[in-house]
């Protein structure tokens, strides 16, 4: 989409865009170049001359079962996290959209978890869902080992997904509520006249009309799940990737490999794969944002 | 409103209360835990009622994690990120939307590709850039002219280092662009007819008109800035620049010590408070700003 | 004007505060230098931050690097050798005064120290004497057979966690291998070349893990980790577990934390019956002086290191922590004034005894493997899989060794052409 | 088909009352138009009948059954919305058939009925399209079809034509009328366009500020507006109104310095009362020779088919419709003749119409109108 | 004040040409209305004059100076936009005064002029309000004031009334007209509403699909439309048009089975040619006794001030305006009389008007127009 009204100057736009473009070149494109370089050499931890090794780093990455494990974990994390956030957000948005007395207060409250940093939430949830304390202790007393994220990778993965979903549900909620409210009221009214009850209206009219918002959120949340800053924060502060790589998402593995394992090259190779993956998402999203799934 | 059915209304309330428990419940548990004594918090089953020890726990946490300076650092960082982002992205979006120049698409893409590539995936080399900001320029100069310059600018352990790389992303630009696109063409045309040039239009019209968006962006960026975790963790080694997120681990009960989660939770509550307040206060504009542009 | 210089260390909590005390003492006693001491919260973080800072040319003058990071540092070329530093700045140090077991770990093949041994430790066996009495155990746990028997009795007496352990490989794998004279890797645990290969999956260590696994299955040995809510030391001090193996460094903490009146003791790590016990490995960390700082800072650094090496400071340090004195004179002095005879310090001399039990062999001199942090992580992941996910012992250890070898090969390639000196 | 009774219905949003007690009843099969300015509560009333808005107090009965607490689907009404409210994600066929689908009608029957209905509104060829691919008029037809297919007892229309352009509006007006003749369900049609109201209504309800101002047949309302509000709202250009006082002696009112004669019987009954007098622009003649009320011509609008003379009397605007043949120019001083039989008299305070002989005067007036129309 | 010359102006967006060579010239002080259906290029032309749109080829001159390459502010034009384009964050006073502020006029002078201008448009009491707190008409006035204060040589209006409701539109129409009389700057007013066009224009330009169809005085265009397009676009209800062929022998055309006589001179010159005949609804009479073209009455619209009879002839719709007195009902078979002097004849292929005696026929027609106001 283009604006009809524009100003004619060739240097002003450059001047206006320059500060950010410069920052982006410096902190985005230049580092991206370095990642490229490292991915093809063996970068010594303390710096110094590095040997060109071709695709060896990639070979190593791809032949490492734990790498694929991290891909799988990331996928599960992003997919489940996305589904839960959107599902919770959707259900709550539909409920609040009914505008019953008091729903304004709920709307206000639901957005709050968005403010919380992933790591802080992680720490709190470590306490809240700790197997030997509170609620879960009681459950575990009745069914031993029913819940033990320190022991079972699957439990730990559930834990981090729950934290992710908790933090982001409020965010999707807001978008979905906005989406719902921009569905013309007369459409739901028309459906009501056509004999549809509230649930039927939600399924037949509201949700299909939310498709653009849903898709938008799907992409946003998937990206967030794969590379979002909270993803790393949550994993790092709650499970540190464990137990036994059970929650080792791709970003965590990259950071861990680089800084703990002092393997900058391997980490760079992984970064590049991840960047490629995200580029695909970006592409999809741009296609989508520019050409919304509109019915008009 | 469509004539209501009592059953649907009841179900709605059930869902909303369920959502409340799900989303706000954790806060309540934290609040309860943060106000209990060591014995209370470690008792099984857990008591969900808040007690009166919050201030003691909070002050213990405050001194344990040296939260005073961390809070100030986080505040500075969050504010710088917010201000920088709000200002720069408005400028870039203006350049992208309101001019017809061949560079427009170049700018657009160069900025928007970064939208989906957060710091986390390029953190290692970004660290190197932050350590030696002028390296690219030096290389450029020596490649072009053969002259070796030895200027260096190290951003590690500085507020500039904490914030600049975070400002170099596209979220805000994107938000502004979407907003600018929704402004009627006639607005700029009317301004042009009134004799206003582009800069004047930017200052007189766009800036005041995008107030809602600025507040939305302010919310997002404050939360984003305050909650930064990995970047400070890597680039700050000087405790004078420590942010609250870095203090989190210091808040955990020490490995060999008492499981005083009450202090931990009180501390985490303090750390959560500023972004929480910002979101609570600005949420109306936050929602409006997002919604107006997203739709 | 005072010359300021930085010192980064990895110790945290109680031990971290003792480091701060040492810094304060140094700053108070002289007027030329000011040392700024910063905890990086953990050994691995310190190594990581040091590297990052070095790349950014913002490295501290002195940094505390744990045993596992020794080779990474040695090949980096990013430090000033200890001996050179002291000589340059006009200090004469009697290098032979260091316990050879300790010095070996941080010295070149020629025996020259690259870094200053600072907080040295070794792993010990802690047990709750009260609990032993209650369970009617009348022997000291010197062999693993005895540990098993004690565990059964404790269990029978109603103790839920006779022995607590975690997946830290230092005690369970490295120290175990040393005292049983088992290699971790070929080439003398790496001392003879970068082409060493891990072999811990082919030694007695495998049997040892299998034994632990059996004990764990019988609930005699219990996993205690931070993630599970309580690590082994708090498990011991809260009397949840009655036996643990951990660093002598924790001796001070344990003494302070256990309730008044509870009787406990340390012993050397148990061996398998019939094993010829070897000396244990030195653990802890040493202080490295980083290259690339202004000359003036080195003067200060040298002064500080010299200050730490004074007999009074060495003694103070060993007293307030559980770390052992690193010099022979220091140890003799403390022994002479009866330090080790009474509680709460009684038993710490056993650490020295363990370290110096025999002359060092190929397998007990130390570990000289690149990327050892990563190798430890592979091994501990294997243990985690074995004990938490019931994975097969041999298979997991084989995999860990294989992955560790990949780390070694990459290290070898990265430093291709460099020789171990 | 159903009759509708609205009894003392009120509506409040929070504290502000929007409808102040509406009493109306519509016969089965009637085409009722509710007319009123924006914000007067037309839509609110319609939506209360539909069940889309709660009734604050009072009762609405459809076919004798009180529906206050019934859900929309239980009331047997179908509604056509101003913006059509088509489901954008469904095809035309799906839009039309949605009500049947909800009702659980079998697929085959549904298809037959969709086709039948589409034929009625002339959409048979567009069944597979999405609403986005339709023109305004076609969308409007889909909305109608969606209402028709349910065979409702009551049709509700909320300004269904106001989104169409002028030309299409005329066409669709005719089609709605035809459709009503064909289906003869009770229809309630809300609009603020007086032409629509006049041309469509069997019964016209004029509302203002939450009150019913007048109910009746369109022509009746046009010729005998019950209040100044109705008088000025219906007819374009709007009826001229001026305030004055009745003088019994001369059986006239004073206006613009001239005495305008009125019905003596009326005058007698109104002695000295403050009144508002109204006259439609097309019923007062402009005389160049100065008969009647003296006026200055302000400007003239040429419509091609006629001219509207905007004059000023005593500083007040006054409009008159004249033919092509008269030559007048802005600034001319002319006389305006106001035939007594064409004058409407309203009470100045209440704005209500004052009539003496309701039954006898009406036919006279009608006759008078036609005469005038012929004169021009 | 300035005259405007538009010479061979074309506009293309990419490959599609939107304006195909426009030649127009407007005298200083003239009120020009550009009328045409949506998408015909009216706004594009206006915006090119304003300088908001580049001119693909051709020239525009204001006061003799070619402005093609001048910035909007240098052209001395002021513009009123359809949606008013008020600055939402500024008060009314700031909106009005913005152009002066940009021009660097001192604060005190600005205030004086803002007050003066506000008085002209009757906004003095609203100066401190934001646009959001104004009604549609008031906003429109602000937009006007903003244009006036600059004392431009040329006023440009792009459908400034189309967002207003019917009543307000009539009022604002009058105000714009008055304002023009007062300021007498050259004004160009774009609309697609024919009533607006007729009532406002000194000079009317009718456009269609990027071409100028006709230029002239409004009444001239009403009475002598140059093409079927103009004929059907101007006048409501629209002119009835039917296709037929001229028979010289009888000097008539065949329509609905009847022979409709036409001017014999015309007939002679058109022998056997395919033509389109047009007649305005208000100029054909309905005769109950069956004279004229036989027709069936479809339905009747009552407007209060008259009636529109919609009839069918040969299956084609045909409208006629009649008075109140005739009693006709849907379904009646009647005759429609088409007076030969009122017939418009167009070439069937090109749609262009065919005239023989241009000068003589015009006054006759004017005299013959019967009067019935159909004012929307
Ligand atoms: N949900 C609501 N809350 C508060 N006031 C409302 C609400 N809906 C309508 N109103 C008010 O009630 C009055 C009547 O509104 P309504 O929509 O019935 O008017 P209307 O006659 O249909 O006008 P229009 O011709 O503009 O559609 C208005 O003053 C409106 O502001
Ligand atoms: N920026 C543009 N790019 C491409 N085509 C355009 C552009 N602006 C206008 N057009 C096309 O030019 C034609 C004329 O547009 P214009 O806006 O002048 O019409 P208009 O007569 O003002 O119509 P309306 O009455 O709807 O405002 C239209 O077909 C339109 O689609
Ligand atoms: O806990 P410490 O200080 O004895 O150190 C133990 C190990 O050597 C760390 O690698
Ligand atoms: Mg309405
Ligand atoms: Mg236009």
Automatic annotation (TrEMBL), chain A:
Record's keyword annotation contains Cell membrane: yes
Membrane-spanning parts: 12-32, 66-96, 108-129, 156-180, 201-222, 269-289
Keywords of this entry: Cell inner membrane, Cell membrane, Membrane, Plasmid, Transmembrane, Transmembrane helix, Transport
Domain of life: Bacteria
Protein name: sn-glycerol-3-phosphate transport system permease protein UgpA
Gene Ontology terms: cellular component: plasma membrane
Pfam family, one: BPD_transp_1
Record's subunit section: The complex is composed of two ATP-binding proteins (UgpC), two transmembrane proteins (UgpA and UgpE) and a solute-binding protein (UgpB).
Protein topology in the membrane: Multi-pass membrane protein
SUPFAM superfamilies (alphabetical): MetI-like
Keyword Calcium: no
Role summary: Part of the ABC transporter complex UgpBAEC involved in sn-glycerol-3-phosphate (G3P) import. Probably responsible for the translocation of the substrate across the membrane.
Cellular localization per UniProt: Cell inner membrane; Cell membrane
Family as reported in the entry's similarity comment: Belongs to the binding-protein-dependent transport system permease family.
Domain ABC transmembrane type-1: 71-285
GO term, biological process aspect, one: transmembrane transport
UniProtKB/TrEMBL annotation, chain B:
Sequence intervals crossing the membrane: 12-34, 75-99, 106-130, 159-180, 201-226, 261-282
The keyword Chaperone is assigned to this record: no
Matching InterPro entries: MetI-like, MetI-like_sf
One biological process term in Gene Ontology: transmembrane transport
Topological relation to the membrane, as annotated: Multi-pass membrane protein
Superkingdom of the source species: Bacteria
SUPFAM superfamilies: MetI-like (SSF161098)
Entries under Gene3D superfamilies matching the protein: MetI-like
Gene Ontology annotations for the cellular component aspect, listed alphabetically: plasma membrane
The entry's keywords: Cell inner membrane, Cell membrane, Membrane, Plasmid, Transmembrane, Transmembrane helix, Transport
Classification via Pfam families: BPD_transp_1
Keyword field contains Transmembrane helix: yes
Signal sequence range: none
Domain ABC transmembrane type-1: 71-282
Main location: membrane
Subcellular location per the Swiss-Prot or TrEMBL entry: Cell inner membrane; Cell membrane
Quaternary structure, from the entry: The complex is composed of two ATP-binding proteins (UgpC), two transmembrane proteins (UgpA and UgpE) and a solute-binding protein (UgpB).
Similarity comment: family membership: Belongs to the binding-protein-dependent transport system permease family.
Biological function: Part of the ABC transporter complex UgpBAEC involved in sn-glycerol-3-phosphate (G3P) import. Probably responsible for the translocation of the substrate across the membrane.
PANTHER family tied to this protein: ABC TRANSPORTER PERMEASE PROTEIN MG189-RELATED-RELATED (PTHR43744), SN-GLYCEROL-3-PHOSPHATE TRANSPORT SYSTEM PERMEASE PROTEIN UGPE (PTHR43744:SF8)
Name this polypeptide is given: sn-glycerol-3-phosphate transport system permease protein UgpE
Organism of origin: Rhizobium sullae (Rhizobium hedysari)
Lineage, uppermost ranks: Bacteria, Pseudomonadati, Pseudomonadota, Alphaproteobacteria, Hyphomicrobiales
Protein encoded by which gene: ugpE
From TrEMBL, chains D, E:
Annotated Gene Ontology cellular component terms: ATP-binding cassette (ABC) transporter complex, substrate-binding subunit-containing
Keywords carried by this UniProt record: ATP-binding, Cell inner membrane, Cell membrane, Membrane, Nucleotide-binding, Plasmid, Transport
Top-level taxonomic group: Bacteria
Domain ABC transporter: start-end pairs: 4-234
GO-annotated molecular function: ABC-type transporter activity; ATP binding; ATP hydrolysis activity
Entry-linked SMART domains: AAA (SM00382)
A UniProt-annotated Pfam family: ABC_tran
Xref: SUPFAM superfamilies: MOP-like, P-loop containing nucleoside triphosphate hydrolases
Gene Ontology BP annotations: carbohydrate transport
Subcellular compartments: Cell inner membrane
Entry membrane topology: Peripheral membrane protein
UniProt-listed InterPro entries: AAA+_ATPase, ABC_transporter-like_ATP-bd, ABC_transporter-like_CS, ABC_transpr_MalK-like, ABC_transpr_MalK/UgpC-like, Mo/tungstate-bd_C_term_dom, NA-bd_OB-fold, P-loop_NTPase
Stated family: Belongs to the ABC transporter superfamily.
PANTHER family, A to Z: MALTODEXTRIN IMPORT ATP-BINDING PROTEIN MSMX, OSMOPROTECTIVE COMPOUNDS UPTAKE ATP-BINDING PROTEIN GGTA
This protein's name: sn-glycerol-3-phosphate import ATP-binding protein UgpC
Organism: Rhizobium sullae (Rhizobium hedysari)
């Amino acid at each position: 989409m283009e604006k009809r009204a524009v100003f004619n100057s060739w240097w002003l736009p450059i001047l206006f865009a320059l500060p950010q473009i410069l920052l982006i070149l410096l902190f985005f494109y230049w580092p991206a170049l370095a990642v490229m370089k490292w991915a093809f050499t063996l970068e010594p931890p303390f710096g110094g001359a590095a040997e060109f090794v071709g695709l060896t780093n990639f070979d190593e990455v791809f032949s490492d079962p734990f790498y694929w494990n991290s891909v799988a974990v990331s996928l599960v994390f992003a997919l489940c996290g996305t589904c839960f956030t959107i599902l919770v957000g959707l259900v709550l948005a539909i409920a609040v959209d009914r505008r019953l007395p008091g729903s304004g207060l709920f709307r206000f409250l639901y957005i709050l978890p968005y403010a919380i940093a992933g790591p802080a939430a992680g720490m709190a949830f470590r306490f809240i869902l700790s197997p030997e304390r509170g609620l879960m202790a009681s459950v575990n007393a009745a069914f031993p080992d029913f819940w033990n994220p320190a022991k079972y990778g699957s439990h730990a993965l559930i834990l981090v997904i729950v934290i992710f979903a908790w933090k982001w549900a409020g965010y999707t909620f807001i978008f979905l509520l906005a989406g719902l409210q921009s569905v013309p009221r007369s459409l739901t009214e028309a459906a009501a006249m056509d004999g549809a009850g509230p649930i039927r209206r939600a399924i037949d009219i509201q949700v299909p009309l939310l498709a653009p918002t849903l898709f938008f959120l799907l992409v946003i949340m998937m990206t967030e799940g794969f590379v979002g800053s909270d993803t790393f924060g949550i994993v790092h502060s709650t499970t540190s990737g464990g137990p036994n790589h059970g929650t080792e998402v791709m970003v965590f593995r990259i950071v861990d490999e680089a800084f703990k394992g002092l393997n900058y090259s391997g980490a760079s190779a992984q970064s590049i794969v991840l960047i490629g993956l995200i580029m695909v998402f970006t592409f999809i999203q741009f296609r989508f944002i520019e050409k919304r799934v509109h019915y008009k | 409103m469509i004539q209501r059915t009592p059953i649907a209304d009841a179900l709605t309330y059930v869902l909303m209360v369920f959502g409340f428990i799900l989303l706000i419940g954790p806060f309540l548990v934290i609040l309860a835990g943060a106000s209990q004594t060591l014995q209370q918090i470690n008792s099984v089953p857990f008591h969900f009622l808040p007690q009166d020890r919050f201030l003691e726990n909070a002050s213990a946490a405050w001194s344990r994690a040296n939260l005073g300076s961390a809070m100030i650092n986080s505040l500075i960082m969050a504010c710088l990120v917010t201000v920088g982002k709000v200002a720069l992205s408005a400028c870039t979006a203006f350049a992208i939307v309101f001019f017809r120049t061949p560079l427009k698409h170049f700018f657009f893409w160069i900025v928007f590709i970064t939208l989906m590539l957060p710091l986390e995936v390029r953190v290692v080399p970004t660290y190197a850039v932050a350590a030696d900001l002028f390296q690219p320029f030096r290389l450029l100069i020596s490649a072009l002219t053969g002259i070796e310059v030895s200027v260096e600018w190290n951003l590690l352990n500085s507020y500039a280092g904490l914030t600049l790389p975070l400002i170099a992303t596209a979220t805000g630009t994107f938000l502004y662009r979407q907003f600018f696109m929704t402004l009627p063409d006639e607005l700029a045309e009317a301004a042009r007819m009134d004799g206003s040039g582009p800069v004047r239009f930017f200052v007189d019209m766009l800036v005041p008109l995008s107030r809602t968006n600025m507040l939305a962006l302010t919310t997002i960026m404050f939360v984003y800035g305050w909650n930064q975790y990995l970047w400070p963790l890597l680039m700050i080694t000087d405790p004078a620049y420590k942010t609250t997120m870095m203090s989190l681990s210091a808040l955990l009960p020490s490995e060999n010590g008492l499981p005083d989660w009450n202090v931990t939770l009180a501390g985490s509550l303090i750390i959560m408070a500023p972004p929480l307040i910002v979101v609570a206060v600005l949420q109306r504009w936050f929602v409006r700003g997002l919604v107006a542009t997203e739709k | 004007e005072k010359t300021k210089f930085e010192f980064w260390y990895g110790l945290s909590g109680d031990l971290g505060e003792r480091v701060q005390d040492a810094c304060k003492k140094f700053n108070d006693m002289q007027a030329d230098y000011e040392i700024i001491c910063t905890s990086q919260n953990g050994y691995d973080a310190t190594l990581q931050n040091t590297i990052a800072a070095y790349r950014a040319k913002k490295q501290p003058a002195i940094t505390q690097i744990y045993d596992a990071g020794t080779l990474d540092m040695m090949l980096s070329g990013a430090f000033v050798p200890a001996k050179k530093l002291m000589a340059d700045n006009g200090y004469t140090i009697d290098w032979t005064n260091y316990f050879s077991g300790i010095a070996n770990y941080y010295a070149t093949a020629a025996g020259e120290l690259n870094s200053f041994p600072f907080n040295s430790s070794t792993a010990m066996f802690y047990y709750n004497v009260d609990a032993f009495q209650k369970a009617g155990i009348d022997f000291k746990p010197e062999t693993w057979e005895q540990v098993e028997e004690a565990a059964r009795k404790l269990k029978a007496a109603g103790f839920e966690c006779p022995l607590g352990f975690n997946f830290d490989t230092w005690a369970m794998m490295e120290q175990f291998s040393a005292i049983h004279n088992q290699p971790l890797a070929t080439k003398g645990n790496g001392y003879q070349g970068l082409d060493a290969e891990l072999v811990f999956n082919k030694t007695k260590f495998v049997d040892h893990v299998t034994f632990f696994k059996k004990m764990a299955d019988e609930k005699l040995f219990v996993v205690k980790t931070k993630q599970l809510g309580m690590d082994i030391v708090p498990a011991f001090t809260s009397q949840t577990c009655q036996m643990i193996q951990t660093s002598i460094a924790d001796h001070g903490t344990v003494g302070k934390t256990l309730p008044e009146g509870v009787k406990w003791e340390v012993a050397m790590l148990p061996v398998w019956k019939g094993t010829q016990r070897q000396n244990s490995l030195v653990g802890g960390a040493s202080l490295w002086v980083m290259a690339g700082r202004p000359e003036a800072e080195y003067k200060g650094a040298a002064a500080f290191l010299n200050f730490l090496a004074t007999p009074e400071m060495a003694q103070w340090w060993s007293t307030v922590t559980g770390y052992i004195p690193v010099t022979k004179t220091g140890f003799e002095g403390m022994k002479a004034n009866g330090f080790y005879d009474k509680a709460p310090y009684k038993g710490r001399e056993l650490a020295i005894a363990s370290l110096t039990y025999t002359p060092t062999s190929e397998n007990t001199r130390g570990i000289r493997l690149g990327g050892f942090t990563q190798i430890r992580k592979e091994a501990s992941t294997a243990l985690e899989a074995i004990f938490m996910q019931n994975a097969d012992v041999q298979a997991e250890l084989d995999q860990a060794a294989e992955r560790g070898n990949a780390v070694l090969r990459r290290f070898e390639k990265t430093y291709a052409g460099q020789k171990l000196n | 088909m159903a009759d509708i009774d609205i009894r003392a219905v009120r509506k409040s949003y929070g504290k502000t009352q929007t409808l102040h007690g509406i009493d109306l009843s519509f016969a089965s099969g009637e085409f009722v138009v509710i007319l009123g300015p924006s914000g007067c509560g037309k839509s609110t009333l319609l939506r209360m009948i539909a069940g889309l808005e709660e009734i604050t107090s009072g009762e609405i009965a459809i076919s004798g059954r009180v529906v206050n607490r019934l859900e929309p689907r239980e009331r047997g009404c179908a509604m056509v919305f101003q913006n059509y409210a088509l489901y954008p994600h469904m095809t035309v066929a799906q839009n039309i058939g949605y009500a049947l689908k909800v009702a659980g009608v079998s697929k085959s029957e549904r298809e037959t009925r969709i086709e039948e209905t589409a034929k009625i509104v002339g959409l048979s060829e567009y069944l597979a399209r999405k609403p986005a691919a339709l023109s305004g008029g076609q969308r409007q037809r889909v909305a109608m079809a969606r209402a028709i297919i349910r065979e409702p007892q009551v049709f509700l229309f909320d300004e269904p034509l106001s989104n169409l352009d002028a030309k299409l509006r005329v066409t669709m007006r005719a089609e709605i009328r035809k459709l009503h003749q064909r289906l003869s369900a009770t229809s309630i049609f809300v609009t603020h366009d007086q032409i629509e109201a006049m041309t469509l209504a069997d019964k016209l309800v004029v509302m203002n500020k939450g009150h019913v101002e007048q109910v009746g047949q369109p022509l009746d309302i046009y010729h005998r507006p019950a209040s100044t509000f109705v008088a000025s709202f219906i007819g374009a250009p709007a009826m001229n109104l001026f305030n004055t006082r009745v003088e019994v002696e001369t059986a006239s009112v004073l206006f613009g310095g001239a005495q305008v004669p009125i019905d003596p019987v009326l005058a007698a009954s109104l002695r000295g009362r403050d009144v508002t007098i109204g006259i439609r622009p097309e019923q007062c003649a402009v005389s160049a020779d100065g008969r009647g009320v003296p006026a200055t011509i302000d400007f003239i609008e040429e419509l091609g088919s006629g001219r509207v003379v905007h004059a000023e009397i005593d500083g007040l605007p006054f409009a008159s419709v004249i033919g092509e043949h008269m030559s007048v120019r802005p600034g001319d001083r002319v006389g305006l003749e106001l035939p007594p039989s064409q004058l409407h008299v309203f009470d100045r305070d209440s704005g209500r119409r004052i009539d003496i002989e309701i039954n006898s005067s009406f036919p006279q007036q009608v006759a008078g109108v036609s005469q005038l129309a012929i004169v021009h």
